[in-house]
Amino acid sequence: DFLFDSAVEAYYKGDWLSVILNMEKALRNKATVRKVKTQCRLSCANQTAFGAPLAASADPGPGSGSLADLSFFQKILQRAECVKTCESEKLGSPTLHEVTEDVELEFRKRTPYNYLQVAYFKINKLDKAVAAAHTFFQANPDHTEMKQNLDYYRMMAGVEEEHFKDLEAREHMAEFLLGKRFYSNDLFEQAAEHFEQAVSEYFTANQECRVLCEGAYNYDGYNYMEYSADLFQTITADHYMQVLSCKQRCALELASYTDQPFDDFLPSHFNYLQFSYYNRENYQQAIECAKTFLLFHPDDEVMKDNLAYYSAMLGEDKAQTISARQAVKEYIQQSILEKELLYFGYEAFGITFVDPDKWTPEEIMPKKLRDKQKADRETAARITEEIGNLMKEIETLVEEKKKDSSDMAKMVTPQEGGVPQVLDGVTVSLSEQQLNGSQRVLLDGVISADQCRQLQRLSNAAALKGDGYRGKPSPHSPGETFQGVTVLKALKLGQEGVPLKSARVLFDNTHTLMDFLKPFFLKSDFSLSWVVGFCCQRSEKQEDRTDLSHPVHVDNCLLVSETNECVKEPPAYTHRDYSAILYLNEDFEGGDFIFTKLDAKTVTAEVRPRCGRMIGFGAGKENPHGVRAVTKGQRCAVALWFTQDPAHEEKERIQAQEMLKMFSAPVNQEFFGNAESGASESPVQVDQAKTDMKREEKPEEKQ
CB–CB of 29/21 below 8 Å? Predict the structure, then answer.
């Protein structure tokens, strides 16, 4: 208290050095007290652990129960004495390091860093000012003034990105965030390393958090002078239940980043890990992590399917010898026992307990409480549905006023002078109402039959050079092979013998397709985020398929069909706002596009592909979609995603434009013109030209 108060007093006097001296010392002392208390309590717990209970007497005599009680309380007293002695030796009298609730709250809000960032700025220590400001902002992301300060710091000379660091970052969270960053960039080896370290650090942090719960009783809600509970209610029903509840909340505290906790935090580590190991073809570790995840969510169908696949790849016999992680088994067992005690306290004494975990088995919760929560959920769902229906009615009225129904049947584009011109041959086949949803439209005739053939040939040619979808032959379904090409890859293939005209068709049409869609989504500010042309066909090795060509999903959030939810967080492409698929052919069986409800089962609309047909839709949770299995032939299409975030505009298109400029040079025009017409220069000259171009590509490929 004294150090914090002294720093605040110095702040208002403008004594910046005293602010820094006292506030930094207060932060160091707080960290030291936490560390010492953790060490003392862990050490004493190990020294005075409860052993096996006294052996029951065959003929218990009078007082034998009291004898067992005395043995229990002896351990309690020994541990209390151990903790008191340890803390006194290392910290001195409790009055030297105890703080008031008000000051404790200020430290939890990271207020000291607010004072420090000003003080460091005043003495021109920008690196420390930035770190203090960033640290404060992590716990207070809605603090407008601090956000403005950080924006200001970013524009200042001498400020580096490395200065923006969280001085209070916990190791397990830092490792987890690094793992997610590598995971999002498909760097699965590095991702696995950081997720593994995050798991290790999590259990260390969890142990520290739990032991710090074993503090003094909080009389909040009681009048201390009138508190008159008996011995056992005081020890167990009140204080011990409070400690257990605190220990359970550690799961929430450790999952918190900025002011919001990650959902299903610890289980998510093993979700990320199993997929990372799969991408490294480390099926043994993938199986271990999948089985560990299933300890939390034993009925998760996706993970069970993953486990079955990994087991088949490794071998069923070997897979059966691999177990889930023992540390996690013990963690779950301990947590469930604590929850059972807390729910018993709820039933017996009315002590409230809010379970922080989503993975808790339903049967752990008392039936009375389950029924109450079920009724509350149903009421909330009904209210939400009623509000949703009301909002849809309002949106419909607004749409009717904004749009002229006659314009919805035509494609229009601005002409010079602002006069709209109807694009012949393009028709609106189905509106969002006819597609039984919102932000959906089906267009026909958007490209010609010749353009369809050229783009289909381009996707097939790409298969000989390597696909445009992260090098995976079957990214969506093991029952189909996938070959694709991006805009930039198409132009690069133009250097290697693939007709440049086909590559140019893909490049030129992508923006045209986007312009077709804009009138229907009433947005003029979205841009291309990613484009890929592809073909899918049934694998000859697969028989009796029942899966989908592309499972039902949502483009900008993670679909959880079991709960009808969609979580908008990585690894989902959260920046995507609109999507479209342009079909190139229809000479195949199966492969129909479907919209579903959030349950991923109830089909609301179905679209049959054909050349020149394009389905456009919003990329959010209102449009879960998938593709039925291709049972015969080859399905080809161009997939496009659009964003309103300029930071996620398609970078490849810029590179492609630069390459087209190179092609437009007289020398290159002559070369590529000859290549497309079948004419050839002397073998030496042509080979040398290709060699030079490949040499120029190498640095780009390394990036």
Answer: no
- Which residues lie below 8 Å from residue 491, measured CB to CB, with a gap of 6+? 500, 503, 507, 656, 659, 660, 663
Kindly report the backbone phi and psi dihedral angles of residue 344, in degrees, each rounded to the nearest multiple of 5, phi listed first.
-65, -40
CB atoms within 10 A of CB 615: 23
Q: pLDDT by residue (tens digit) across 375-388?
A: 877 888 888 888 87
Q: Cβ neighbours of residue 106 under 8 Å, at least 6 residues apart?
A: 4, 112
pLDDT in tens, 416-458: 333 333 355 688 888 888 899 988 999 998 888 988 988 888 8
CA distances from residue 374 to 266, 379, 465 in whole angstroms, order as listed: 25, 9, 55
Residue 564 has a pLDDT of 84
Q: Quick one: tokens of 638?
A: 């161009």
633 phi and psi angles, rounded to 5 deg: 85, -165
Q: Which helix (H) or strand (E) holds 598?
A: none
Q: Nearest to residue 585, comparing CAs of 633, 653, 657?
A: 633
Read off the pTM. Answer: 0.53
Q: What is the dihedral of CA 16, 19, 21, 26, to 10 degrees?
A: -170
Question: Residue 401: its pLDDT value, please?
Answer: 57
Percent of the chain with pLDDT over 90: 38
Q: What is the mean pLDDT of residues 577-581?
A: 93
Backbone angles phi, psi at 168, to 5 degrees: -105, 10
Cβ 488 vs Cβ 465: under 8 Å: no
635 is catalytic: yes
Window from 179-193, 223-237, 303-317, 415-429 with minimum mean pLDDT: 415-429
Distance CA 403, CA 409 (A): 11
DSSP-assigned states of every residue in 489-500: HHHHHHTTTS-H
Of the candidates 440, 576, 635, 653, the residue annotated as catalytic is 635
Closest CA to 438 of 578, 561, 549: 578
Determine how β-strand 480-486 pairs with β-strand 558-560. Answer: unpaired
Alpha-carbon distances of 571 from 476, 574, 689, rounded to whole Å: 15, 8, 41
Lowest mean pLDDT among 255-264, 473-482, 577-586: 473-482
Identify whether 571 is preceded by a cis peptide bond (ω within 30 of 0): yes
Q: Which of 336, 294, 285, 290 is nearest to 314 (CA)?
A: 285
Give me 356's structure tokens: 């922080």
Distance CA 589, CA 346 (A): 59
On whether the CB atoms of residues 199 and 269 are closer than 8 A, the answer is yes
Q: What is the pLDDT of residues 607-655, one digit of tens each?
A: 999 999 999 999 999 999 999 988 888 899 999 998 888 878 777 777 7
pLDDT at 385: 81
